[in-house]
Amino acid sequence: MITIALSKGRILKQTLPLLEKVGISLLDDPFTSRKLIFATNHDDLQCVVIRATDVPTYVQFGAADLGIVGKDGLLEHGGEGLAELLDLKIAQCRLMTAVPAAAVGQLRHDKRIRVATKYVKSAQRYYQAQGIQAEIIKLYGAMELAPLVGLADEIVDLVETGSTLKANNLVAQDLVADISCRLIANAASMRVQHKMIAKLVDQLAEHI
Ligand code: PRT
Ligand code: MG
Question: Which of 116, 108, 111 is nearest to 145 (CA)?
Answer without folding.
Answer: 116
